[in-house]
Amino acid sequence: MYIRNEDTICAPATVPGTGAISVIRMSGPQALEIADKVIRCRKGKLSTAKGYTLKFGTIIDASGAVVDEVLASVFRSPHSYTGENSVEISCHASSYIVSTVMGLLYEAGARAAEPGEFTQRAYLNGKMDLAQAEAVADVIASQNAAAHRIAFKQMKGGFSSELRDMRGELLELVSLMELELDFSEEEVEFADRSRLDSLLEQIISHVSRLIDSFRLGNAIKNGIPVAIAGATNTGKSTLLNALLGEDRAIVSDVHGTTRDTIEETLNIDGVLFRFIDTAGLRETDEVVEQIGIQRTFKKISEASIILGMIDLTRDFESTRETIRSIIEKVDFSCQKLIFLLNKTDISDVRANTDTTDLIISELENKGVACNNAAIIPISAKTGSGVGNLRTHLADSQRDLLADSDTTLVTNQRHIQALTDARTSLLRVRSGLAAGLPTDLAAQDIREAIYHLGSIVGEISSDEVLGNIFRNFCIGK
Fold first, then answer.
1. Fewest C-beta in 10 Å: which of 47, 64, 180, 211?
2. Alpha-carbon span 225 to 277, nearest angstrom
3. What is the DSSP string of 215-248?
4. What is the pLDDT of residue 340?
């Protein structure tokens, strides 16, 4: 992205024609003067108004016709979102009015803002760091309470503060190590080795915790992945349709109808879930269906929650085989398993009891505690028990909505930088243990500092900035 901070930029901050009011933002050195050319205020000019002032005015086109009556908010540098002089024009949300006002602003000397350019200027002018800037986009895109809480905390600088503390401690240590190099002939030791070892362990542990948090953070941001798994024709697609309240997946009596995964998101009590309907598990020689089953196994491994569909009308042996195949694919250290006893509308009570006992038995045979898997009777066809499933899913993730000081990483760029930083720190630890020279250890610490700094933008390139901000919406 070509950065031209000397320009004055403008863009609609709201979607025209979708509400009562539209807001047009303008920022840059000539923002107030350009506004004066377009808006006629009853008292005084916008260029002479104090910051945080709201003025009423009229916009008139070149022919003298009134376009609209507006309210203009004045923000003076550095006390604005971008750190520059800024004006926000609130007009009626007519597409015609917005486009006309934008045209008048262009004629007066402003240019159209590029995607994310307002936030980019805020970053370049020191109003926020790069991690906070990225969090602005996450706040806008948040679809549930948990995702909003994580993004808002990052936008307020919680994650950045942790990174700066770690980076500051490493900078102090590497400075002492480099000072030793200047006095190498005197064999003076400025960096306390025991303190260095202790600090390394603390920071490696901290970075590792942030990396490990990505699985949960990414799930909250994009939806908790829930894989619906089971044999063919057990009602997986019917369940997906029942949860969504629409016919999203094809339902058929033909075995192997679902050949590929189908994904849909659903907000349940403030938590976003991403349900994945998978191909039925069975032995088959059909090549396409085999590919679908392999994808099923992959989705199960990636899911946070597995819904194991059991058909209560099936015989004992096939039911046991399905239960075993599902249990074998679950990592109980990081995944939740819920067995759904489906087709209660056409089965008897004994089938329910026998299947429950079979599940408990198979769990015990695998050394899995019974409380690690829930069992919920449902009828995907009639909707019976589906409400209980929704409640159980929401309750299982209730802690995500609770206020917490724990930082969760949600950004792929951040994860890569943290991983690179940890690799450098691990090299330092192993190198010091092996008697690595001070200058080589210092170089690895500098690399870790670089990677941590790249997250908040202490070190960045135009290419990185371009990739980040071009994904923002126009006007932000």
1. 64
2. 11
3. HHHHHHHH-EEEEEEEBTTSSHHHHHHHHHTS--
4. 94
In contact, 421 and 452? CB cutoff 8 Å: yes
Q: Which fold has domain 226-401?
A: Rossmann fold (3.40.50)
* Closest by CA position to 133, among listed 208, 74, 83: 83
The answer to whether 91 touches 68, Cβ cutoff 8 Å, is yes
* Side chain identity, residue 287: V
Give the N- to C-terminal CA distance of the chain in Å, as an integer: 15
- The residue among 234, 244, 211, 208 whose CA lies nearest residue 346 is 234
Looking at the domain 9-128, which fold is it?
Gyrase A; domain 2 (3.30.1360)
CATH architecture of the region 136-213+409-457: Up-down Bundle (1.20)
The β-bridge relationship of strands 271-277 and 224-230 is parallel
**Shortest CA distance to 307 belongs to which of 395, 366, 234, 381?**
234
What single string gives the DSSP state of each residue in 142-186?
--SHHHHHHHHHHHTTHHHHHHHHHHHHHHHHHHHHHHHHHTGGG
DSSP type of residue 35: H
Q: Per-10-residue mean pLDDT for the chain, 476 residues long? A: 73 86 95 95 91 95 92 96 96 94 95 92 91 87 81 88 89 74 52 74 93 86 87 85 72 48 83 81 53 69 89 92 90 90 91 92 88 90 93 83 73 93 92 79 88 83 66 72
Residue 306 pairs with which residues in a beta bridge? Answer: 227, 337
Delimit the domains of the chain by residue range.
9-128, 136-213+409-457, 226-401
Strands across the sheet with 53-60, in order? Answer: 39-41, 53-60, 66-75, 86-92, 21-27, 9-12, 111-112
Q: What is the pairing mode between strands 21-27 and 9-12? A: antiparallel
**Ranges assigned E (strand) in 246-390:** 262-268, 271-277, 305-311, 336-342, 373-377
**Burial letters 225-263, b for 16+ CB under 10 A, else e:** bbbbbbbbbbbbbbbbbbbeeeeebebeeeebbbeebbb
Both tokens assigned to 384 = 């019976």
40-44 contact pairs (CB < 8 A, 24+): 41/72
